[in-house]
Design goal:
Layout: H1 2-23, E1 25-27, E2 32-34, H2 40-61, H3 64-68, E3 72-74, E4 81-83, E5 100-101, H4 102-108
Helix pairs in contact: 1-2
The structure holds zinc ion (ZN).
Length: 116
């Protein structure tokens, strides 16, 4: 939900930037600033659009938060279980390959459940 809000927020910045480029003025909550006599509106508009894009990108990249909810991960090669915080980018330190979330692991290798 927080992420959705961030996406919405970044779009607001971009839309505001476009509106400034389009109208050459800021119709703010507090007062109206008119850029008619100079070209600062280009910088203001592009700046806001850029800011919105950076915000959007940051929000998009923050999907790593999802990984923090995964507690256990298992290496398909050496069969070692790790907690996700032990791993860097989910890579097994011994085999240097990507580990699989435990739940997904047993979906992929259901036979190994019998060995436990
Ligand atoms: Zn391994």
């Amino acid at each position: 939900m927080n992420k959705l809000f961030n996406y919405f927020f970044s779009f607001m910045w971009i839309l505001l930037g476009i509106a400034i480029l389009d109208n050459k003025k800021i119709k703010g909550l507090f007062r109206e600033y008119n850029f008619d006599d100079n070209n600062l509106y280009i910088f203001a508009g592009l700046g806001l659009i850029l800011f919105g894009l950076i915000w959007f990108y940051t929000t998009f990249k923050s999907r790593t938060n999802y990984k923090k909810t995964i507690e256990y991960s298992k290496c398909p090669k050496c069969k070692t279980s790790y907690t996700y915080s032990d791993l860097k980018d989910g890579i097994c330190p011994t085999c240097n390959i990507k580990t699989i979330e435990t739940q997904e692991y047993f979906k992929k290798y259901p036979k190994e459940l019998e060995d436990i």
